[in-house]
Amino acid sequence: MPKAYIDGREIELRPGERLNGIQAAARAGIEIPHYCWHPGLSVVGSCRMCLVEVGTRDAESGRIIMLPKLMPACNTPIKDGTVLVTNSEKVARARAMVEEDLLLRHPIDCSICDKAGECRLQDYHFQYGQGERRAEIRPFTSRKRDLGDVTLFIDRCVMCGRCVRFTREVSGSSELLVIRRGAQEEIDVLSDLPLHNPLSGNVVDLCPVGALADKDFLYKQRVWYLRRSPGVCTLCATGCSIWVEQNQDRVYRIKPRENPAVNQWWICNAGRYGYPLVHDPRRLRGVTRRGGGSAVPLDGNVFSREIPQQLRAAGKLALVLSPFLTVEEAYLACLWIRGLDAAAEITVGPIPREGDDQRFPGGFVISAEKCPNRLGVEEIAAHFRPNGRSYAEWLEAAGRGEFGGIWVAGGYVRPWIDEAAAARMRHARLLVVQDLFPSPVSDGADYVLAAAAFAETEGSYVNARHRLQTARRAVRPPLDNRPAGPLFWELLGRSGLYDPRRVLSEVAAEITYFSAASGEIPDVGIDLRVDRLAEVAPRPGTV
Amino acid sequence: MDNYQPVLLAGVGVEDGHTRAVYEARGGYSTLRRVLRESQPAEVAEAVRASGLRGRGGAGFPTGLKWSFLPADHPGPVYMCVNADESEPGTFCNRVLMEHDPHQVLEGTILSCYATRASTAYIYLRYEYPLSLRRLQQAVDECYEAGYLGKNILGSDFCLDVYIHRGAAAYICGEETGLIESLEGKRAWPRIKPPFPAVEGLFRKPTVVNNVETLACVRHIVERGPEWFRSMGTPPDPNQPHDPGSFGPKLYCVSGHVQRPGCYEGPLGVPCRAVIDDWAGGVRKGRKIKAVVPGGLSTGLLTPDELDVPMDFNGPVQAGCLGLGTAGVIVMDDTCSLIDFLYNSCRFFAHESCGQCTPCREGTAWSLRIMERIKAGGGRLKDLDLLLEIADGMGIIPGTTICGLADGAAWPIKNAVRKFRPEFEEYIRRTNPRGYLATQPVPALHGPVMPRLEQPRLEHTSSQGGAGDGRTQAAVAGGPVPWRKTIPLG
């Protein structure tokens, strides 16, 4: 096994593995500070913060020969016998010099800077900088420039060039550029070509300092008040891994969570700025009973007491599952409805689509399918109702009055149903709708329940590439809401609190498609196709 | 040395020497004909390797070794870049070659391309050389007419196209990877190495970048053989195991306070004093030498006592300079202020720093700020130590930055302050009698490093109150200077 040595610690390299000095040191638990290097971008080696001493160790004699000059760790490939020294006096002096250089013309306005608290310049200066300021360069300027989707605080920039490389290599839109030369260099755009592309928000994450500011987040919250929980973006079938950052049950921003199997380091602007729907005042609230033209707020416990009898009395039942439900919610809903009526019809609601998949040079894909869990919900529906009818056929049947009771388990983030379709559903004697926003079908329903938005619910989604990922709950839903998971858990008479983890194990044991999800789900999710390689025959479609 | 026959400059001064007819009459292109008829590319490359030719662009890297890094089995294309972006202050030998004898350069280029199997050569020409552009373009056109360029040159299966690319007046484009980036149409930010251009260069193909003078030497090596080339110059230093020696003819550019500034040719290893006194006629008006830049501004300074160093790739290093550089000798007599020299040097490098690497971008600008303040009469003795520390941070050892510009910016500071410290101290004491020992920060004297077009020019007024010793300082009226108005978008 090839070995490398970092500050005397030995690390093993797996065969064929290509690491640079920063990655190898991280494996040894040693941080090499860096600004310009990013695993998702090309290596330029210009910030010079990662300078380390590099040498080679002769395997036989054990002699170590060091290079006389400092080398950037980001551009040093680690091979068998590579030796890195990151804690020497020479390295410390080089780092202190770079830190001092970067602060020469920096306005040091941390107190009003959005990045304070998660700023590399701050962190590294505390760790590697020196206390004394020797430069007498004044006055500072603190200028701001509108680049389009983001704001640039020009004088905070350390010229790492990550944002410029991102727009060239990942988004492919090349809006950002460097103007002028030397110490006068600045990031800019052409006046008629502002930074505006579906991935532009990522440059804010990439910026190691406070130069690029998110217009949406600017001055809203100090980052040290935020708590983050791992989530999954539910706005398209790519299912990016995200961090949901909240303070006191209010979501303030969404950040990408690194996931090499899905979104790498990026998310799109739709996902990043889509969180306000969680706090949308137009959202449905609580449980409402309608009848005789009036809507009466209903206690959730009363609802769950009276609804089983009402549905049993209604006759033939039907369940509409939206592709926004988690696997666990859909499973519990099916389980419950089949318990009431073994012949209940189960169908998957309309799949929102917009245009075609958007592909970017860096490999990022924004899916045309604007829902997180079509595959998962379809598999659940197919398990309980093999060869079920498609939504269109089902709607026809509903229009003929075939069903006595219809339960719509919604959760759509955008308008999804028109008046004609809603009228067909109203043929049922009892119509129960759980959804995020009022719609024609909720207007005519007998019971209306508020659904949970993505940050309010814990559960699993299967993305367009059959990868199951689990999202944690980030914020609590409003107190009177009865989200689908806990509701069905209660209706099924299960004891204790809703436990999606246990439900998923049940699903994995029950349904072949989900069998890979039986164990612990890693942060990056799990590919459900792993266990199904032998299965050749195409499954009958369920939509 | 009196009997030295110029080789590279042989065609200079010949009437219409820049035309093909005259060049051919002087024996031009006969070597190319012979090589294409009789020799294999490897033989040409071997001759260059055996000659010990080292790059004339400043770093002195052995040319044959550089060529040998090209991957042997690459399907191609291989590119040749001719570095004619001669921008080092005090250097103009390439200009002489290109203006007076462009065919010599072209023949060397064609031979080098043949040796390296390059199919396209780009001549990256400095913007400020319009006559060179005309002469070179005329020479290239004549070569196409005569079949020295194009498809199947002189009936062989060797094909070569030559394009002249005119730069946009940036010093950094003379750095080989900066040149490549610029040729690709990008910002001339030098690339981090490895990969070296020989492996992945222009358009991500194997690329050789050679200086104009290097290629001119190739023509003579191929014509006269490596033994002739090794017959002049300095043999390897036995104390330095890796020293390949300094062989061959070299063009020396002498400028500054001398009687006859100009471009002179001689073997490598001529003592600096001989260059100044014998060729350039000594210091003007019989004055004394104060300091000499041995090889272009980046290489640092020699004191009058150090003038006996041989001008080869090792000599100036032994006197504490960066290297031979381009052998652009700048002579300063005793009327010249070294404060002004260092201020100008700092200004040049702050202006030309590409701004990619932190130590260079900030270090050059910072040292310029300090020099501005010292020059304006606000210096303190401790500034000299700070200058040295900044210079050491930029170029403590090669490798603090991606390219060598930071080293080049650091060396004049190191040499000037270390070798001429009494002059700096005397100046600071004289111009800042009240504050030269101060350790507290002084109020800012200056606005931005370099005024921009949009910005009001700094007014030079006599200092207000206090130090009424007649010195001037730049006063910034009304607080911070607006740098750039932000234009709202959309």
Structure notes:
The complex is a heterodimer of chains A (543) and B (490). Chain A is of the alpha+beta class. Among the domains of chain A are: 3-99, Ubiquitin-like (UB roll); 287-500, 3-Layer(aba) Sandwich (Rossmann fold). Chain A is built from 14 helices and 25 strands. Chain A has helices spanning 21-27, 89-102, 120-128, 162-169, 202-206, 269-272, 300-314, 327-340, 374-384, 391-399, 419-425, 440-443, 484-491, 500-510; strands at residues 3-6, 9-12, 51-57, 64-72, 82-85, 144-146, 150-153, 176-179, 186-189, 212-214, 227-232, 241-247, 250-256, 287-291, 294-298, 317-321, 345-348, 358-359, 365-366, 405-409, 430-435, 447-450, 459-462, 467-471, 526-527. In chain A, strands 15-14-22-21-20-16-17 form a 7-stranded mixed sheet. In chain A, β11 and β12 (241-247) form a beta hairpin. In chain A, α2 crosses α3, α8 (327-340) packs parallel to α9 (374-384) and α8 packs across α14 (500-510). The two termini of chain A are 51 Å apart. In chain A, 49% of the residues are buried. Residues 533-543 of chain A have low confidence and may be disordered. With 490 residues, chain B is of the alpha/beta class. Chain B folds into 3 domains: 20-231, Rossmann fold; 252-336, Ubiquitin-like (UB roll); 339-441, Up-down Bundle (de novo design (two linked rop proteins)). Helices cover 38% and strands 13% of the residues of chain B. In chain B, the strands form 5 sheets. Chain B has a 4-stranded parallel sheet, with helices on both faces. In chain B, β7 and β8 form a beta hairpin. The relative contact order of chain B is 0.10. The model of chain B is unreliable at 442-490 (pLDDT under 50). Chains A and B meet through β4, α2 and β6 of A and α13 and α14 of B.
